[in-house]
User: Fold Membrane protein YeiH from Paeniglutamicibacter sulfureus.
Amino acid sequence: MTMPLMFDLLGVFFFGVSGSLLAARRGFDIVGSLLLAGLTGIGGGIVRDVILGEVPTAFANPYYFVPPTLAALLVYFVAPGVQRLKRPLLVFDAAGLALFCTSGTVKALELGMNPFAAALLGVTTAVGGGLLRDVVANQTPAIFDPRDMYAVPAMMGAGLIAALWVAGFSGWVWELAVAAIVFTLRVLSLKLRWHVPKAVGPWHREAELN
Amino acid sequence: MTMPLMFDLLGVFFFGVSGSLLAARRGFDIVGSLLLAGLTGIGGGIVRDVILGEVPTAFANPYYFVPPTLAALLVYFVAPGVQRLKRPLLVFDAAGLALFCTSGTVKALELGMNPFAAALLGVTTAVGGGLLRDVVANQTPAIFDPRDMYAVPAMMGAGLIAALWVAGFSGWVWELAVAAIVFTLRVLSLKLRWHVPKAVGPWHREAELN
Amino acid sequence: MTMPLMFDLLGVFFFGVSGSLLAARRGFDIVGSLLLAGLTGIGGGIVRDVILGEVPTAFANPYYFVPPTLAALLVYFVAPGVQRLKRPLLVFDAAGLALFCTSGTVKALELGMNPFAAALLGVTTAVGGGLLRDVVANQTPAIFDPRDMYAVPAMMGAGLIAALWVAGFSGWVWELAVAAIVFTLRVLSLKLRWHVPKAVGPWHREAELN
Assistant:
Protein backbone atom coordinates (compact mmCIF):
# COMPACT_ATOMS: atom_id res chain seq x y z
CA MET A 1 0.00 0.00 0.00
CA THR A 2 1.30 3.42 -0.93
CA MET A 3 1.39 6.33 1.49
CA PRO A 4 -1.33 8.38 -0.28
CA LEU A 5 -3.67 5.35 -0.31
CA MET A 6 -3.13 4.89 3.43
CA PHE A 7 -4.04 8.54 4.06
CA ASP A 8 -7.08 8.26 1.81
CA LEU A 9 -8.33 5.15 3.61
CA LEU A 10 -7.85 6.89 6.97
CA GLY A 11 -9.96 9.82 5.71
CA VAL A 12 -12.66 7.39 4.57
CA PHE A 13 -12.63 5.77 8.01
CA PHE A 14 -13.02 9.02 9.97
CA PHE A 15 -15.78 10.25 7.67
CA GLY A 16 -17.39 6.82 7.93
CA VAL A 17 -17.53 6.98 11.72
CA SER A 18 -19.71 10.10 11.50
CA GLY A 19 -22.10 8.17 9.23
CA SER A 20 -22.34 5.20 11.61
CA LEU A 21 -22.82 7.49 14.60
CA LEU A 22 -25.71 9.19 12.84
CA ALA A 23 -27.27 5.78 12.14
CA ALA A 24 -26.88 4.93 15.84
CA ARG A 25 -28.51 8.16 17.00
CA ARG A 26 -31.43 7.71 14.59
CA GLY A 27 -32.11 4.10 15.61
CA PHE A 28 -31.30 2.67 12.17
CA ASP A 29 -30.18 -0.93 11.73
CA ILE A 30 -26.65 -2.18 11.01
CA VAL A 31 -27.36 -2.08 7.26
CA GLY A 32 -28.09 1.64 7.58
CA SER A 33 -24.91 2.05 9.64
CA LEU A 34 -22.81 0.38 6.92
CA LEU A 35 -24.51 2.27 4.12
CA LEU A 36 -24.19 5.67 5.81
CA ALA A 37 -20.55 4.96 6.72
CA GLY A 38 -19.80 4.07 3.10
CA LEU A 39 -21.74 7.00 1.69
CA THR A 40 -20.05 9.51 3.99
CA GLY A 41 -16.60 8.06 3.40
CA ILE A 42 -16.60 7.50 -0.34
CA GLY A 43 -19.71 9.39 -1.59
CA GLY A 44 -17.88 12.62 -2.32
CA GLY A 45 -15.24 10.85 -4.38
CA ILE A 46 -17.89 8.86 -6.25
CA VAL A 47 -19.73 12.03 -7.28
CA ARG A 48 -16.42 13.60 -8.38
CA ASP A 49 -15.44 10.55 -10.45
CA VAL A 50 -18.88 10.16 -12.03
CA ILE A 51 -18.76 13.80 -13.15
CA LEU A 52 -15.21 13.29 -14.45
CA GLY A 53 -16.38 10.21 -16.37
CA GLU A 54 -14.03 7.89 -14.49
CA VAL A 55 -14.83 4.59 -12.75
CA PRO A 56 -14.94 5.68 -9.07
CA THR A 57 -11.67 4.92 -7.23
CA ALA A 58 -13.57 3.16 -4.47
CA PHE A 59 -15.02 0.67 -6.97
CA ALA A 60 -11.68 0.05 -8.66
CA ASN A 61 -9.95 -0.86 -5.38
CA PRO A 62 -11.56 -3.25 -2.86
CA TYR A 63 -9.48 -1.79 0.01
CA TYR A 64 -12.06 1.01 0.17
CA PHE A 65 -14.65 -1.38 1.57
CA VAL A 66 -12.60 -1.97 4.74
CA PRO A 67 -12.84 1.45 6.47
CA PRO A 68 -16.67 1.75 6.36
CA THR A 69 -16.98 -1.81 7.66
CA LEU A 70 -14.60 -1.01 10.53
CA ALA A 71 -16.51 2.19 11.29
CA ALA A 72 -19.85 0.32 11.49
CA LEU A 73 -18.33 -2.40 13.71
CA LEU A 74 -16.67 0.16 15.98
CA VAL A 75 -19.95 2.00 16.52
CA TYR A 76 -21.85 -1.28 17.00
CA PHE A 77 -19.53 -2.38 19.79
CA VAL A 78 -18.58 0.88 21.52
CA ALA A 79 -20.97 3.59 20.33
CA PRO A 80 -21.12 5.55 23.61
CA GLY A 81 -17.36 5.41 23.89
CA VAL A 82 -17.10 6.77 20.34
CA GLN A 83 -19.61 9.51 21.20
CA ARG A 84 -17.50 10.65 24.13
CA LEU A 85 -14.55 11.05 21.74
CA LYS A 86 -16.46 13.78 19.88
CA ARG A 87 -13.64 16.29 20.11
CA PRO A 88 -10.80 14.06 18.82
CA LEU A 89 -13.17 12.82 16.10
CA LEU A 90 -13.70 16.40 14.89
CA VAL A 91 -9.96 16.79 14.60
CA PHE A 92 -9.66 13.62 12.52
CA ASP A 93 -12.62 14.74 10.41
CA ALA A 94 -10.76 18.03 9.80
CA ALA A 95 -7.80 15.98 8.55
CA GLY A 96 -10.10 14.12 6.14
CA LEU A 97 -11.56 17.40 4.92
CA ALA A 98 -8.07 18.80 4.29
CA LEU A 99 -6.80 15.72 2.45
CA PHE A 100 -9.93 15.20 0.34
CA CYS A 101 -10.24 18.81 -0.85
CA THR A 102 -6.62 18.88 -2.04
CA SER A 103 -6.52 15.37 -3.56
CA GLY A 104 -9.90 15.91 -5.26
CA THR A 105 -8.82 19.19 -6.85
CA VAL A 106 -5.52 17.72 -8.04
CA LYS A 107 -7.24 14.70 -9.62
CA ALA A 108 -9.63 16.96 -11.53
CA LEU A 109 -6.80 19.24 -12.70
CA GLU A 110 -4.76 16.25 -13.88
CA LEU A 111 -7.75 15.04 -15.90
CA GLY A 112 -7.84 18.39 -17.70
CA MET A 113 -10.69 20.25 -15.98
CA ASN A 114 -10.52 24.05 -15.88
CA PRO A 115 -9.37 25.50 -12.51
CA PHE A 116 -12.88 26.62 -11.45
CA ALA A 117 -14.41 23.22 -12.14
CA ALA A 118 -11.45 21.46 -10.50
CA ALA A 119 -11.79 23.51 -7.32
CA LEU A 120 -15.54 22.81 -7.24
CA LEU A 121 -14.87 19.09 -7.64
CA GLY A 122 -12.29 19.27 -4.84
CA VAL A 123 -14.91 20.83 -2.55
CA THR A 124 -17.39 18.17 -3.72
CA THR A 125 -14.92 15.44 -2.75
CA ALA A 126 -14.49 16.97 0.70
CA VAL A 127 -18.06 17.87 1.64
CA GLY A 128 -20.12 15.68 -0.74
CA GLY A 129 -20.01 12.58 1.45
CA GLY A 130 -21.36 14.40 4.50
CA LEU A 131 -24.03 16.06 2.37
CA LEU A 132 -25.16 12.69 0.96
CA ARG A 133 -25.17 11.23 4.50
CA ASP A 134 -27.57 13.93 5.70
CA VAL A 135 -29.76 13.84 2.58
CA VAL A 136 -30.16 10.05 2.72
CA ALA A 137 -30.80 10.09 6.49
CA ASN A 138 -33.53 12.69 5.80
CA GLN A 139 -32.16 15.58 7.82
CA THR A 140 -31.12 19.14 7.03
CA PRO A 141 -27.49 19.08 5.82
CA ALA A 142 -25.03 20.09 8.55
CA ILE A 143 -22.97 22.15 6.09
CA PHE A 144 -25.84 24.67 5.78
CA ASP A 145 -25.70 25.46 9.51
CA PRO A 146 -24.51 29.07 9.99
CA ARG A 147 -23.14 28.21 13.45
CA ASP A 148 -20.36 26.07 12.02
CA MET A 149 -17.77 26.80 9.34
CA TYR A 150 -17.24 23.51 7.55
CA ALA A 151 -17.12 24.08 3.80
CA VAL A 152 -15.23 27.40 3.80
CA PRO A 153 -11.76 26.00 4.65
CA ALA A 154 -12.27 23.36 1.93
CA MET A 155 -13.29 26.04 -0.57
CA MET A 156 -10.19 28.08 0.28
CA GLY A 157 -7.93 25.04 0.02
CA ALA A 158 -9.37 23.89 -3.30
CA GLY A 159 -9.14 27.42 -4.71
CA LEU A 160 -5.55 27.75 -3.53
CA ILE A 161 -4.52 24.43 -5.14
CA ALA A 162 -6.15 25.52 -8.41
CA ALA A 163 -4.47 28.95 -8.27
CA LEU A 164 -1.06 27.39 -7.58
CA TRP A 165 -1.57 24.99 -10.50
CA VAL A 166 -2.35 27.91 -12.85
CA ALA A 167 0.78 29.69 -11.56
CA GLY A 168 2.83 26.57 -12.34
CA PHE A 169 3.27 25.15 -8.85
CA SER A 170 2.23 21.57 -8.28
CA GLY A 171 3.49 18.46 -6.51
CA TRP A 172 3.07 16.83 -3.14
CA VAL A 173 4.93 19.54 -1.19
CA TRP A 174 2.35 22.17 -2.23
CA GLU A 175 -0.50 19.75 -1.65
CA LEU A 176 0.69 18.99 1.86
CA ALA A 177 1.18 22.69 2.63
CA VAL A 178 -2.36 23.55 1.48
CA ALA A 179 -3.80 20.57 3.36
CA ALA A 180 -2.04 21.84 6.50
CA ILE A 181 -3.60 25.29 6.00
CA VAL A 182 -7.10 23.80 5.52
CA PHE A 183 -6.66 21.61 8.59
CA THR A 184 -5.48 24.55 10.70
CA LEU A 185 -8.34 26.79 9.56
CA ARG A 186 -10.92 24.11 10.29
CA VAL A 187 -9.54 23.38 13.77
CA LEU A 188 -9.28 27.11 14.52
CA SER A 189 -12.88 27.62 13.34
CA LEU A 190 -13.99 25.00 15.90
CA LYS A 191 -11.82 26.38 18.74
CA LEU A 192 -12.76 30.02 18.15
CA ARG A 193 -16.37 29.30 17.14
CA TRP A 194 -16.08 31.11 13.83
CA HIS A 195 -19.30 31.17 11.91
CA VAL A 196 -20.44 31.85 8.38
CA PRO A 197 -22.69 34.74 7.30
CA LYS A 198 -26.29 33.75 6.76
CA ALA A 199 -27.85 33.58 3.30
CA VAL A 200 -29.38 37.02 3.92
CA GLY A 201 -27.54 40.07 5.19
CA PRO A 202 -27.85 40.94 8.91
CA TRP A 203 -29.84 44.08 8.07
CA HIS A 204 -32.90 41.96 7.18
CA ARG A 205 -35.36 40.73 9.75
CA GLU A 206 -36.51 37.11 9.46
CA ALA A 207 -40.10 38.29 9.30
CA GLU A 208 -39.51 40.00 5.96
CA LEU A 209 -38.77 36.67 4.35
CA ASN A 210 -42.13 34.99 4.64
CA MET B 1 -20.49 34.62 -26.01
CA THR B 2 -23.03 33.11 -28.34
CA MET B 3 -26.75 33.84 -28.11
CA PRO B 4 -27.75 30.33 -26.90
CA LEU B 5 -25.09 30.47 -24.13
CA MET B 6 -26.48 33.84 -23.01
CA PHE B 7 -30.00 32.39 -22.79
CA ASP B 8 -28.73 29.33 -20.93
CA LEU B 9 -26.86 31.46 -18.37
CA LEU B 10 -29.98 33.57 -17.84
CA GLY B 11 -31.96 30.39 -17.16
CA VAL B 12 -29.32 29.25 -14.67
CA PHE B 13 -29.54 32.63 -12.93
CA PHE B 14 -33.34 32.62 -12.56
CA PHE B 15 -33.37 29.02 -11.33
CA GLY B 16 -30.49 29.91 -9.00
CA VAL B 17 -32.45 32.75 -7.39
CA SER B 18 -35.11 30.25 -6.26
CA GLY B 19 -32.36 28.17 -4.63
CA SER B 20 -30.90 31.14 -2.75
CA LEU B 21 -34.35 32.32 -1.66
CA LEU B 22 -35.05 28.88 -0.21
CA ALA B 23 -31.72 29.03 1.68
CA ALA B 24 -32.75 32.45 3.04
CA ARG B 25 -36.17 31.25 4.21
CA ARG B 26 -34.66 28.20 5.91
CA GLY B 27 -32.00 30.18 7.78
CA PHE B 28 -29.08 28.49 5.98
CA ASP B 29 -25.69 30.18 5.65
CA ILE B 30 -24.20 31.78 2.54
CA VAL B 31 -22.51 28.48 1.64
CA GLY B 32 -25.93 26.84 1.54
CA SER B 33 -27.22 29.74 -0.53
CA LEU B 34 -24.44 29.30 -3.10
CA LEU B 35 -24.79 25.52 -3.16
CA LEU B 36 -28.57 25.57 -3.56
CA ALA B 37 -28.32 28.28 -6.25
CA GLY B 38 -25.82 26.17 -8.17
CA LEU B 39 -27.73 22.94 -7.70
CA THR B 40 -31.02 24.47 -8.86
CA GLY B 41 -29.42 26.24 -11.81
CA ILE B 42 -27.16 23.55 -13.19
CA GLY B 43 -28.24 20.36 -11.37
CA GLY B 44 -30.73 19.28 -14.05
CA GLY B 45 -28.14 19.66 -16.80
CA ILE B 46 -25.53 17.78 -14.74
CA VAL B 47 -27.87 14.79 -14.27
CA ARG B 48 -28.67 14.82 -18.01
CA ASP B 49 -24.99 14.94 -18.99
CA VAL B 50 -23.95 12.25 -16.50
CA ILE B 51 -26.61 9.92 -17.92
CA LEU B 52 -25.49 10.77 -21.45
CA GLY B 53 -21.88 10.01 -20.47
CA GLU B 54 -20.70 13.55 -21.25
CA VAL B 55 -18.64 15.90 -19.08
CA PRO B 56 -21.35 18.27 -17.76
CA THR B 57 -21.53 21.52 -19.73
CA ALA B 58 -21.32 23.53 -16.54
CA PHE B 59 -17.97 21.97 -15.68
CA ALA B 60 -16.57 22.45 -19.17
CA ASN B 61 -17.30 26.19 -19.15
CA PRO B 62 -16.40 28.43 -16.17
CA TYR B 63 -19.04 31.01 -17.18
CA TYR B 64 -21.61 28.77 -15.50
CA PHE B 65 -20.21 29.66 -12.08
CA VAL B 66 -21.17 33.31 -12.47
CA PRO B 67 -25.01 33.13 -12.36
CA PRO B 68 -25.29 31.13 -9.09
CA THR B 69 -22.77 33.51 -7.46
CA LEU B 70 -24.82 36.50 -8.60
CA ALA B 71 -28.02 34.87 -7.34
CA ALA B 72 -26.53 34.27 -3.88
CA LEU B 73 -25.17 37.83 -3.70
CA LEU B 74 -28.49 39.31 -4.85
CA VAL B 75 -30.40 37.44 -2.16
CA TYR B 76 -27.78 38.31 0.47
CA PHE B 77 -28.13 42.02 -0.19
CA VAL B 78 -31.78 42.46 -1.11
CA ALA B 79 -33.63 39.28 -0.10
CA PRO B 80 -36.93 40.94 0.93
CA GLY B 81 -36.89 42.97 -2.27
CA VAL B 82 -36.37 39.75 -4.25
CA GLN B 83 -39.22 38.10 -2.32
CA ARG B 84 -41.58 40.90 -3.27
CA LEU B 85 -40.77 40.23 -6.93
CA LYS B 86 -42.29 36.76 -6.62
CA ARG B 87 -44.57 37.21 -9.60
CA PRO B 88 -41.97 38.46 -12.12
CA LEU B 89 -39.61 35.75 -10.85
CA LEU B 90 -42.17 33.09 -11.70
CA VAL B 91 -42.32 34.43 -15.22
CA PHE B 92 -38.55 34.27 -15.59
CA ASP B 93 -38.57 30.79 -14.08
CA ALA B 94 -41.14 29.79 -16.74
CA ALA B 95 -38.71 31.05 -19.38
CA GLY B 96 -35.96 28.89 -17.89
CA LEU B 97 -38.28 25.89 -17.85
CA ALA B 98 -39.17 26.42 -21.52
CA LEU B 99 -35.56 26.86 -22.66
CA PHE B 100 -34.14 23.98 -20.61
CA CYS B 101 -36.76 21.41 -21.67
CA THR B 102 -36.21 22.12 -25.36
CA SER B 103 -32.41 22.44 -25.25
CA GLY B 104 -32.11 19.34 -23.06
CA THR B 105 -34.22 17.23 -25.42
CA VAL B 106 -32.30 18.43 -28.48
CA LYS B 107 -28.93 17.67 -26.88
CA ALA B 108 -30.03 14.11 -26.06
CA LEU B 109 -31.43 13.57 -29.58
CA GLU B 110 -28.22 14.85 -31.16
CA LEU B 111 -26.24 12.37 -29.05
CA GLY B 112 -28.31 9.52 -30.47
CA MET B 113 -30.81 8.77 -27.68
CA ASN B 114 -34.19 7.35 -28.67
CA PRO B 115 -37.07 9.90 -28.68
CA PHE B 116 -38.60 8.65 -25.40
CA ALA B 117 -35.30 8.81 -23.53
CA ALA B 118 -34.50 12.19 -25.10
CA ALA B 119 -37.82 13.66 -23.98
CA LEU B 120 -37.30 12.28 -20.47
CA LEU B 121 -33.82 13.84 -20.35
CA GLY B 122 -35.28 17.15 -21.55
CA VAL B 123 -37.78 17.06 -18.67
CA THR B 124 -34.92 16.11 -16.33
CA THR B 125 -32.94 19.15 -17.49
CA ALA B 126 -35.93 21.40 -16.84
CA VAL B 127 -37.21 20.10 -13.49
CA GLY B 128 -34.19 18.18 -12.13
CA GLY B 129 -32.50 21.24 -10.62
CA GLY B 130 -35.58 22.24 -8.62
CA LEU B 131 -36.06 18.65 -7.51
CA LEU B 132 -32.44 18.42 -6.28
CA ARG B 133 -32.86 21.79 -4.51
CA ASP B 134 -35.83 20.48 -2.53
CA VAL B 135 -34.29 17.07 -1.83
CA VAL B 136 -31.04 18.57 -0.53
CA ALA B 137 -32.88 21.20 1.54
CA ASN B 138 -34.87 18.33 3.08
CA GLN B 139 -38.35 19.34 1.99
CA THR B 140 -41.10 17.70 -0.07
CA PRO B 141 -40.40 18.48 -3.76
CA ALA B 142 -42.55 21.33 -5.08
CA ILE B 143 -43.17 19.51 -8.39
CA PHE B 144 -45.27 16.87 -6.55
CA ASP B 145 -47.74 19.52 -5.35
CA PRO B 146 -51.14 18.96 -7.05
CA ARG B 147 -52.01 22.65 -6.67
CA ASP B 148 -49.39 23.71 -9.21
CA MET B 149 -48.74 22.51 -12.76
CA TYR B 150 -45.00 22.74 -13.19
CA ALA B 151 -43.70 19.64 -14.92
CA VAL B 152 -46.58 19.12 -17.36
CA PRO B 153 -45.71 21.99 -19.77
CA ALA B 154 -42.09 20.74 -19.80
CA MET B 155 -43.27 17.19 -20.53
CA MET B 156 -45.43 18.45 -23.40
CA GLY B 157 -42.61 20.56 -24.81
CA ALA B 158 -40.03 17.78 -24.59
CA GLY B 159 -42.46 15.32 -26.18
CA LEU B 160 -43.26 17.78 -28.96
CA ILE B 161 -39.57 18.37 -29.75
CA ALA B 162 -38.98 14.61 -29.89
CA ALA B 163 -42.04 14.05 -32.13
CA LEU B 164 -40.96 16.86 -34.50
CA TRP B 165 -37.47 15.32 -34.66
CA VAL B 166 -38.91 11.93 -35.59
CA ALA B 167 -41.04 13.62 -38.25
CA GLY B 168 -37.93 15.26 -39.67
CA PHE B 169 -38.33 18.80 -38.32
CA SER B 170 -35.45 20.25 -36.34
CA GLY B 171 -33.55 23.52 -36.02
CA TRP B 172 -33.73 26.65 -33.91
CA VAL B 173 -37.02 27.89 -35.40
CA TRP B 174 -38.87 24.80 -34.16
CA GLU B 175 -37.07 24.92 -30.81
CA LEU B 176 -38.07 28.53 -30.31
CA ALA B 177 -41.66 27.80 -31.26
CA VAL B 178 -41.92 24.92 -28.82
CA ALA B 179 -40.22 26.94 -26.08
CA ALA B 180 -42.80 29.70 -26.66
CA ILE B 181 -45.62 27.14 -26.28
CA VAL B 182 -44.13 25.75 -23.03
CA PHE B 183 -43.66 29.26 -21.66
CA THR B 184 -47.24 30.25 -22.54
CA LEU B 185 -48.70 27.08 -21.00
CA ARG B 186 -46.71 27.58 -17.80
CA VAL B 187 -47.72 31.23 -17.45
CA LEU B 188 -51.36 30.40 -18.24
CA SER B 189 -51.29 27.59 -15.66
CA LEU B 190 -50.22 30.14 -13.05
CA LYS B 191 -52.75 32.80 -14.12
CA LEU B 192 -55.68 30.38 -14.37
CA ARG B 193 -54.63 28.23 -11.42
CA TRP B 194 -54.62 25.02 -13.43
CA HIS B 195 -53.81 22.00 -11.38
CA VAL B 196 -52.75 18.42 -11.94
CA PRO B 197 -54.82 15.32 -11.06
CA LYS B 198 -53.73 13.64 -7.85
CA ALA B 199 -51.96 10.28 -7.83
CA VAL B 200 -55.28 8.63 -7.02
CA GLY B 201 -58.57 9.19 -8.84
CA PRO B 202 -61.10 11.62 -7.27
CA TRP B 203 -63.49 8.72 -6.57
CA HIS B 204 -61.24 7.46 -3.73
CA ARG B 205 -61.38 8.84 -0.21
CA GLU B 206 -58.07 9.59 1.50
CA ALA B 207 -59.07 7.32 4.38
CA GLU B 208 -58.98 4.28 2.12
CA LEU B 209 -55.28 4.74 1.58
CA ASN B 210 -53.98 4.10 5.05
CA MET C 1 -38.85 -9.55 -26.39
CA THR C 2 -36.43 -11.92 -24.74
CA MET C 3 -37.23 -13.79 -21.54
CA PRO C 4 -34.73 -11.86 -19.34
CA LEU C 5 -36.14 -8.53 -20.60
CA MET C 6 -39.65 -9.68 -19.71
CA PHE C 7 -38.52 -10.55 -16.16
CA ASP C 8 -36.70 -7.25 -15.83
CA LEU C 9 -39.76 -5.28 -16.93
CA LEU C 10 -41.91 -7.19 -14.44
CA GLY C 11 -39.45 -6.26 -11.68
CA VAL C 12 -39.61 -2.61 -12.75
CA PHE C 13 -43.41 -2.77 -12.64
CA PHE C 14 -43.62 -4.23 -9.12
CA PHE C 15 -41.06 -1.80 -7.76
CA GLY C 16 -42.92 0.99 -9.59
CA VAL C 17 -46.20 0.16 -7.86
CA SER C 18 -44.56 0.84 -4.48
CA GLY C 19 -43.50 4.26 -5.77
CA SER C 20 -46.98 5.16 -7.00
CA LEU C 21 -48.57 3.92 -3.77
CA LEU C 22 -46.26 6.17 -1.77
CA ALA C 23 -47.24 9.13 -3.99
CA ALA C 24 -50.91 8.28 -3.33
CA ARG C 25 -50.46 8.10 0.44
CA ARG C 26 -48.58 11.40 0.50
CA GLY C 27 -51.16 13.27 -1.58
CA PHE C 28 -48.78 13.95 -4.47
CA ASP C 29 -50.05 14.56 -8.01
CA ILE C 30 -49.96 12.15 -10.95
CA VAL C 31 -46.61 13.62 -12.04
CA GLY C 32 -45.16 12.63 -8.67
CA SER C 33 -46.75 9.20 -9.03
CA LEU C 34 -45.10 8.67 -12.44
CA LEU C 35 -41.76 10.03 -11.27
CA LEU C 36 -41.67 7.93 -8.09
CA ALA C 37 -42.76 4.82 -10.02
CA GLY C 38 -39.96 5.38 -12.53
CA LEU C 39 -37.37 6.19 -9.87
CA THR C 40 -38.21 3.11 -7.79
CA GLY C 41 -38.32 0.82 -10.81
CA ILE C 42 -35.28 1.93 -12.75
CA GLY C 43 -33.35 4.18 -10.29
CA GLY C 44 -31.16 1.38 -8.93
CA GLY C 45 -30.14 0.29 -12.42
CA ILE C 46 -29.44 3.88 -13.46
CA VAL C 47 -27.07 4.42 -10.51
CA ARG C 48 -25.33 1.11 -11.32
CA ASP C 49 -24.91 2.00 -14.99
CA VAL C 50 -23.73 5.55 -14.29
CA ILE C 51 -21.03 4.18 -11.96
CA LEU C 52 -20.08 1.58 -14.59
CA GLY C 53 -19.83 4.35 -17.20
CA GLU C 54 -22.55 2.81 -19.38
CA VAL C 55 -25.62 4.48 -20.87
CA PRO C 56 -28.37 3.27 -18.49
CA THR C 57 -30.30 0.29 -19.90
CA ALA C 58 -33.59 2.05 -19.26
CA PHE C 59 -32.57 4.92 -21.53
CA ALA C 60 -31.32 2.65 -24.28
CA ASN C 61 -34.61 0.76 -24.51
CA PRO C 62 -37.99 2.58 -24.61
CA TYR C 63 -39.81 -0.51 -23.28
CA TYR C 64 -38.69 0.55 -19.81
CA PHE C 65 -41.08 3.48 -19.86
CA VAL C 66 -44.12 1.21 -20.02
CA PRO C 67 -44.06 -0.42 -16.54
CA PRO C 68 -43.87 2.85 -14.52
CA THR C 69 -46.70 4.29 -16.63
CA LEU C 70 -48.81 1.19 -15.99
CA ALA C 71 -48.01 1.38 -12.27
CA ALA C 72 -49.12 5.03 -12.05
CA LEU C 73 -52.32 4.31 -14.00
CA LEU C 74 -53.12 1.26 -11.88
CA VAL C 75 -52.77 3.25 -8.65
CA TYR C 76 -54.76 6.16 -10.11
CA PHE C 77 -57.72 3.92 -10.93
CA VAL C 78 -57.71 1.34 -8.15
CA ALA C 79 -55.42 2.59 -5.37
CA PRO C 80 -57.42 1.16 -2.44
CA GLY C 81 -57.66 -2.17 -4.22
CA VAL C 82 -53.90 -2.12 -4.73
CA GLN C 83 -53.42 -1.27 -1.05
CA ARG C 84 -55.46 -4.26 0.00
CA LEU C 85 -53.11 -6.47 -2.03
CA LYS C 86 -50.23 -5.51 0.26
CA ARG C 87 -49.22 -9.08 0.95
CA PRO C 88 -49.09 -10.34 -2.65
CA LEU C 89 -47.29 -7.12 -3.59
CA LEU C 90 -44.56 -7.85 -1.04
CA VAL C 91 -44.07 -11.25 -2.65
CA PHE C 92 -43.71 -9.69 -6.10
CA ASP C 93 -41.36 -7.08 -4.66
CA ALA C 94 -39.25 -9.94 -3.23
CA ALA C 95 -39.06 -11.40 -6.75
CA GLY C 96 -37.85 -8.04 -8.08
CA LEU C 97 -35.25 -7.84 -5.30
CA ALA C 98 -33.99 -11.35 -6.13
CA LEU C 99 -33.78 -10.74 -9.88
CA PHE C 100 -32.21 -7.28 -9.64
CA CYS C 101 -29.48 -8.26 -7.16
CA THR C 102 -28.33 -11.19 -9.31
CA SER C 103 -28.63 -9.46 -12.70
CA GLY C 104 -26.93 -6.31 -11.35
CA THR C 105 -23.98 -8.26 -9.95
CA VAL C 106 -23.56 -10.25 -13.16
CA LYS C 107 -23.60 -7.12 -15.34
CA ALA C 108 -20.88 -5.52 -13.19
CA LEU C 109 -18.75 -8.68 -13.25
CA GLU C 110 -19.08 -8.95 -17.04
CA LEU C 111 -17.89 -5.36 -17.35
CA GLY C 112 -14.74 -6.24 -15.43
CA MET C 113 -15.43 -4.92 -11.91
CA ASN C 114 -13.74 -6.69 -9.00
CA PRO C 115 -16.03 -9.09 -7.04
CA PHE C 116 -16.50 -6.71 -4.07
CA ALA C 117 -17.49 -3.79 -6.27
CA ALA C 118 -19.72 -6.05 -8.41
CA ALA C 119 -21.58 -7.33 -5.36
CA LEU C 120 -22.03 -3.78 -4.09
CA LEU C 121 -23.41 -2.71 -7.47
CA GLY C 122 -25.77 -5.70 -7.42
CA VAL C 123 -27.09 -4.58 -4.04
CA THR C 124 -27.34 -1.03 -5.40
CA THR C 125 -29.43 -2.27 -8.33
CA ALA C 126 -31.77 -4.10 -5.95
CA VAL C 127 -32.23 -1.54 -3.17
CA GLY C 128 -31.16 1.73 -4.83
CA GLY C 129 -34.54 2.41 -6.43
CA GLY C 130 -36.41 2.13 -3.14
CA LEU C 131 -33.80 4.29 -1.43
CA LEU C 132 -34.14 7.00 -4.08
CA ARG C 133 -37.95 6.79 -3.80
CA ASP C 134 -37.78 7.50 -0.06
CA VAL C 135 -35.10 10.18 -0.34
CA VAL C 136 -36.99 12.09 -3.05
CA ALA C 137 -40.31 11.74 -1.20
CA ASN C 138 -38.55 13.22 1.86
CA GLN C 139 -38.97 10.34 4.28
CA THR C 140 -36.59 8.12 6.25
CA PRO C 141 -35.51 5.25 3.98
CA ALA C 142 -37.41 2.03 4.69
CA ILE C 143 -34.25 -0.08 4.33
CA PHE C 144 -32.85 1.47 7.56
CA ASP C 145 -35.78 0.13 9.61
CA PRO C 146 -34.49 -2.53 12.06
CA ARG C 147 -37.94 -4.17 12.12
CA ASP C 148 -37.63 -5.39 8.53
CA MET C 149 -34.87 -7.35 6.79
CA TYR C 150 -34.81 -6.03 3.25
CA ALA C 151 -31.24 -5.48 2.13
CA VAL C 152 -29.65 -8.53 3.81
CA PRO C 153 -31.01 -11.20 1.40
CA ALA C 154 -29.85 -9.02 -1.52
CA MET C 155 -26.40 -8.65 0.05
CA MET C 156 -26.15 -12.43 0.51
CA GLY C 157 -27.30 -13.09 -3.05
CA ALA C 158 -24.93 -10.56 -4.60
CA GLY C 159 -22.03 -11.91 -2.52
CA LEU C 160 -22.88 -15.48 -3.51
CA ILE C 161 -22.99 -14.62 -7.23
CA ALA C 162 -19.61 -12.89 -6.94
CA ALA C 163 -18.10 -15.82 -4.99
CA LEU C 164 -19.41 -18.33 -7.56
CA TRP C 165 -17.95 -16.18 -10.36
CA VAL C 166 -14.54 -16.18 -8.67
CA ALA C 167 -14.79 -19.97 -8.26
CA GLY C 168 -15.51 -20.31 -11.98
CA PHE C 169 -19.27 -20.90 -11.90
CA SER C 170 -21.45 -18.62 -13.97
CA GLY C 171 -24.44 -18.84 -16.30
CA TRP C 172 -28.20 -18.57 -16.01
CA VAL C 173 -28.65 -21.79 -13.99
CA TRP C 174 -26.54 -20.39 -11.14
CA GLU C 175 -28.22 -17.00 -11.41
CA LEU C 176 -31.65 -18.55 -11.16
CA ALA C 177 -30.60 -20.70 -8.20
CA VAL C 178 -29.22 -17.69 -6.30
CA ALA C 179 -32.30 -15.61 -7.16
CA ALA C 180 -34.46 -18.41 -5.76
CA ILE C 181 -32.44 -18.38 -2.52
CA VAL C 182 -32.75 -14.58 -2.19
CA PHE C 183 -36.47 -14.75 -2.88
CA THR C 184 -36.96 -17.51 -0.30
CA LEU C 185 -34.94 -15.67 2.35
CA ARG C 186 -36.87 -12.46 1.78
CA VAL C 187 -40.27 -14.18 1.96
CA LEU C 188 -39.20 -16.15 5.06
CA SER C 189 -37.96 -12.93 6.70
CA LEU C 190 -41.45 -11.46 6.22
CA LYS C 191 -43.30 -14.58 7.40
CA LEU C 192 -41.10 -15.16 10.45
CA ARG C 193 -40.60 -11.45 11.24
CA TRP C 194 -36.82 -11.68 11.14
CA HIS C 195 -35.13 -8.44 11.95
CA VAL C 196 -31.72 -6.86 11.61
CA PRO C 197 -29.44 -5.85 14.52
CA LYS C 198 -29.48 -2.15 15.26
CA ALA C 199 -26.53 0.10 14.48
CA VAL C 200 -25.51 -0.14 18.15
CA GLY C 201 -25.17 -3.32 20.16
CA PRO C 202 -28.07 -4.28 22.49
CA TRP C 203 -25.88 -3.64 25.56
CA HIS C 204 -26.09 0.13 25.01
CA ARG C 205 -28.98 2.24 26.23
CA GLU C 206 -30.42 4.82 23.84
CA ALA C 207 -29.76 7.52 26.44
CA GLU C 208 -26.02 7.04 26.14
CA LEU C 209 -26.13 8.15 22.54
CA ASN C 210 -27.19 11.76 22.97
Observations:
- The helical segments of chain B are 3-25, 30-52, 57-60, 66-84, 86-110, 115-136, 151-166, 172-191.
- Chain B touches chain C at residues 50-53, 113-117, 120-121, 131, 134-135, 138-141, 143-146, 150-152, 155, 195-201, 204, 206, 208-210 (CB under 8 Å).
- Chain B has a mean pLDDT of 91.
- Residues 86-110 of chain B form the longest helix (25 residues).
